[in-house]
Amino acid sequence: MEAVPPGWDPGQEEPFESSLIRPYSLTGGRTRPSRSDFSVTSQVVAVPSVSQERMDPEVELILSLCARPVSMAEVASRSGLPLGVVRILLADLLDQGYVTVRTSDWERRRPDAGTLRSVLERIRQL
Amino acid sequence: MMGAEGAGPVPDTLKIVIAGGFGAGKTTLVSAVSEVESLHTEEVMTSESVGVDDLDGVEGKATTTVALDFGRITLDGSTVVYLFGTPGQRRFSFMWEELADGALGAVVLADTRRLTDSFDVIDFFESRGVPFVVAVNCFDGQRTHRADDVRVALDVEERVPLLLCDARDRESVKEVLTELVALVLRLELSGA
Ligand SMILES: Nc1nc2c(ncn2[C@@H]2O[C@H](COP(=O)(O)OP(=O)(O)OP(=O)(O)O)[C@@H](O)[C@H]2O)c(=O)[nH]1
Ligand SMILES: [Mg+2]
User: Fold this and answer.
1) B65 and A20: CB-CB below 8 Å?
2) Dihedral angle of Cα B73, B157, B150, B142, to the nearest 10 degrees
3) Which of A31, A100, B81, B157 has CB 3.0 to 4.6 Å from B47, enough for a Cys bridge?
4) How near does any CA of chain A get to the CA of B1, in Å?
5) For residue A75, what are the domain limits?
6) Best residue in A36, A77, A89 to probe B by mutation, most B CBs within 10 Å?
7) Tally of domains within chain B
8) Mutate to test the interface with A, among B44, B53, B170 (most CBs of A within 10 A)
9) Whether residue B50 has pLDDT greater than 70
10) Is residue A92 part of a domain?
11) Which residues in chain B have Cβ-Cβ distances shorter than 8 Å to A70?
């Protein structure tokens, strides 16, 4: 669950080059995703039993983190990779059929009154 | 909705943004209600904001990294609320854009010792039409600040809920979130 790639210490202030350039080398230097399907709360799930090519260890780590539905932000947090890098790698994985993604309709449209009332009630009961 | 076979249902998600200046208590507030230890990630301001397509020679181009912490509250198996803390300084506004997009609403966490830190982010949410409440984190223990005085100092309109809170206290934070969702409900019912 709490897997973090070796050598990565999120608590440690690293010089810019090593903390940023290394993860962005995973994207081949790209800073934009191939598609814009991923918001921070988008739920990502790995597609089971797709034949495994050899992948970067970070990409395998990302896939293993999505065995169950998990938000893009949680994938970033658990992998220790910057959000922007995870967004690009997940977009590639989606293109290649390794993951599916679902972004809640509530990102586009406010929940209806009934839903809001039940959210309110549940927060009160926490 | 079911996800990939065997992976379990994919929940619907709600996003709430917690914005406040340095040390305003964002991480504390998120941890007070999150069911997981507050999570942490980083975003880098690069391409979108400065128009770079790749990171060759990035040293001179990328500018700011921003630490984001967030928490999760599962309301039931099918609804999950995410709380995202974001710094309230204007140079981090690229992050406000991303987080405000599709958000249910926002909490502006104001620090009684540095009230003016909240001006920029209040303007931002107002201009984007993101519903927000102002929660005043009372660091000096006693609730010596009157909500009305803070409202005047921050120049916050009457229709924006403003309440005093203690970011360390779960019940207090629940009250803040309840206030926000109640505001969104009122907006929905009034057709706004
Ligand atoms: N007395 C008091 N202390 C608080 C309160 N909320 C937070 N603190 C303390 O204030 C300090 C800063 O709180 P954080 O939650 O780290 O603030 P933050 O907004 O996340 O800070 P940055 O991420 O550095 O911008 C911590 O030492 C907290 O324990 C409060 O309501 N009252
Ligand atoms: Mg913090």
Assistant:
1) yes
2) -40
3) A31
4) 10
5) 31-125
6) A77
7) 1
8) B44
9) no
10) yes
11) none
List, for residues B72-130, the tens digit of each pLDDT value. 999 987 899 999 999 888 888 888 998 999 999 999 999 888 888 899 999 999 999 99
Give ipTM to 2 decimals: 0.84
* Residue B88 Cβ contacting ligand 1 at under 6 Å: no
User: Would you say residue A116 lies in a domain?
Assistant: yes
The amino acid at residue A55 is M
Q: What is the pLDDT of residue B101?
A: 93
Query: A45, B10: Cβ pair inside 8 Å?
Result: yes
Closest CA to B163 of B121, B108, B115, B106: B108
- Which residues pair with residue A102 across a beta bridge? A43
Query: Strands A43-46 and B65-76: what pairing?
Result: unpaired
Q: Which of residues 87-106 of A touch B (CB under 8 A)?
A: 100, 102-106
CATH number, position B87: 3.40.50.300
Asked whether residue A3 is domain-assigned, the answer is no
Q: Is residue B7 part of a domain?
A: no
Which ligand has the minimum distance to the alpha carbon of residue B19? 1
How many domains would you assign to chain A? 1
Does residue A8 form part of some domain?
Answer: no
The span from the CA of B135 to the CA of B173, in Å, is: 9
Asked if the C-beta of A5 comes within 8 angstroms of chain B's C-beta atoms, the answer is no
Straight-line distance from the first to the last Cα atom of chain B, in angstroms, rounded to the nearest whole number: 29
